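DM from R.C. (forwarded with permission)

"hey, sorry to bug you on a friday — could you get me a structure for this? deadline for the figure draft is monday and I only need the backbone to look sensible"
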Amino acid sequence: MPATRLSTFDDWVDLFRVWQSDIGVAYPEITNYKFEAKFGPTRSNEVEYGAYKGRAKWERVVQIPDQRMRDALLNLIVYQGDTEFASVEQQRRLFETAPTEHDRQSLCRVMTEEMRHGWQMCHLLMHHFGYSGRVEAQKMLERRAFDQKRLLGAFNQDVLNWLDFFVYTDFVDRDGKYQLTMLSYSGFAPLAQSMIPMLKEESFHLGTGQDGIKRIVKAAVVPSQIIQKYINKWIPVSLDLFGVDQSSSAHWFYVWGLKGRYDEPTAKEQANLSCMNEHSRDLYYQECLKLVEMINKSVPPGQPMLYVPDDKFNRYIGEHARQPYSVRGELLGDVEYAEHMKQMLPQPEDAALIGEIQALEKRWISAKGAIQ
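My reply, with the result:
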């Protein structure tokens, strides 16, 4: 890593190439990808909600009328960018075990687009936020998920196998869709404009995950109880990613016109500023229920159906954080809960079995196109 701070975006690009090599993803199809900042048209040229509703969106940071707003905007961009680079680090070992060439190419696309999303956020930081932006853009490439240094705990967890990957892209990346959508309504025009291409790319990631789980379910080789364990792993993590309950930060993001509700264009009721995170989290949870219902259509006759764990299960943020609720929402005793967690979350022996299945059983996942 450089001993001095970055001065130009070209300096940052040089560091980005070092980062690719350092984490072990400098494959030709990735390094030859044309990384660039992309912008798209927003719904409105005016701020659509909050205290500045009706005013022209800000094109430059210096136009934003309050330093607290500028600091909050910087923070939103940093956290979004950090998740993008972290997800690449989490998935970096999967090239070695891709079940088909289609899946390898899908992984390449997911990872290059996640890199581009991080690139986009760093482009904003470097071009709009002066010295502070340059510092944060450099730090973005210095943290490592596998060193437990990423800003959000979900992005310091390992993605060990392709079942892990498919569940991750279906549910964690779906939280990303929600975050990007909320930022697409931002009063800071360059951020809102950045979200449009990012959301189009993110849709492929979600489809990759949903289709991958269906293909595994249809093949009926990986035990359904193990598939369920990975759903139990990633959905609570995704719920936590919406942030704390009764969040003052989410309150002010909205008042300042920096981050809207997920359903902002269609929401009929006035925003409840004390429950901003809860509002979008509830919409996400309802979507998860529908997704798992769709997956269950691919479950072969006689096999157990999958389900979404209760929203109180294994939570580390919010009202139910660190409380011993079961996957069905029952409050358990400490000893019973410890045993329940071993039964309901992936264990080393589960990962070992998946590794053995993926190495020895060629038909552990249905071919692409087998799902109607």
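R.C.: lifesaver. Residues 254 and 260 are 6 Å apart (CA to CA).
me: no worries. The mean pLDDT is 96.
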